């Protein structure tokens, strides 16, 4: 197994303000990331994902707990960690008065790369992120998605050993998102390690090898996307458009979620035949599909919200 790159132990952050009550954004987060992994942090708005990434990337100090990157304490020695990390911040924007080509190459030069390497990496990143046609336009004239692509291209081009990406594909079209996924996979193949957040659960499923669901500043669940899907009781879902009224007949098969007149049943594959038989004998139409990560997320986080109430 590859070495450990990032380790947080009982990390806590409380934001203090003179005008408002304190906010406990992280309430004891522990996690580990190994070299070459792509790990996604998932969670509702305000869960604490950005706070975690800001601490990990030396932009914010924790209230307590420890976080180490490459075996170095991030809070005590931020200057030793910074050369090895690169960050796409949430809602970051490229410099408006620079073109994407200038933005990427200037950043690489500032990180100490040679002129030749900076040039080659800039051209490759522009190409990978489909920015070639806009490479010489001021960023202020670019569309939202084009600006976001510029941000991601800038950070990818660093090929830093540890990359933090906070909602990297926000506002990108489905083609651009897939370019990002492909590029990030390529970077981890070369040995980089990636920690990202996303609200697109298809993206987390396609891209991350492991995920942590953060809720209320704590890790609620960790594991693979498959683990999470299995934890909801099966790997298939059956949708019965007129099934809500018959919910009691289906409860024994697994989690039942009514939605208007419809009913979704999460079912283990070995009981699918029996369930479909019951649907037919009940005169109900049914469609079968895989459980998505989004459904598993709604189920797991929804259960936790319910328990808190
Ligand atoms: N500077 C700050 N001062 C006070 N509270 C803050 C500050 N920054 C964040 N918070 C609060 O801390 C909590 C965690 O915020 P954070 O930005 O880490 O969430 P997030 O998981 O990234 O959410 P999102 O998915 O919306 O980006 C929220 O309740 C937020 O309002
Ligand atoms: Mg955030």
Description of the structure:
Helices cover 36% and strands 27% of the residues. With 309 residues, it is α/β, with parallel strands linked by helices. It has 2 domains: 4-228, P-loop containing nucleotide triphosphate hydrolases (Rossmann fold, 3-Layer(aba) Sandwich); 233-290, Alpha-Beta Plaits. The strands form 3 sheets. The chain has a 6-stranded mixed sheet with strand order 6-7-8-3-9-10, with helices on both faces. The mean pLDDT is 94.
Keywords, please?
14 strands, 309 residues, alpha/beta, Alpha-Beta Plaits, Rossmann fold, globular, 11 helices
The total domain count is: 2
Number of strands: 14
Please give the largest β-sheet.
6 strands, mixed
Total helical elements: 11
Going across the biggest sheet, name each strand in turn: 6-7-8-3-9-10
Spans of at least 5 consecutive residues with low confidence: none
Going by helix content, strand content and strand pairing, the class is alpha/beta
Task: Kindly summarize this structure in a few lines.
The chain contains 11 helices and 14 strands. The protein is α/β, with parallel strands linked by helices and 309 residues long. Helix 3 (100-110) packs parallel to helix 5.
Describe the SSE topology.
Blueprint: E1 4-15, E2 23-34, E3 38-42, H1 49-56, E4 64-69, E5 72-73, H2 78-81, E6 85-88, H3 100-110, H4 115-128, H5 144-158, E7 162-166, H6 174-189, E8 193-197, H7 201-207, E9 210-215, E10 218-223, H8 225-231, E11 236-240, H9 247-250, E12 256-259, E13 262-267, H10 272-281, E14 287-290, H11 293-308
Parallel strand pairs: 3-8, 3-9, 6-7, 7-8
Antiparallel strand pairs: 1-2, 1-4, 4-5, 9-10, 11-13, 11-14, 12-13
The site of adenosine-5'-triphosphate has 13 residues, from β2 and α1.
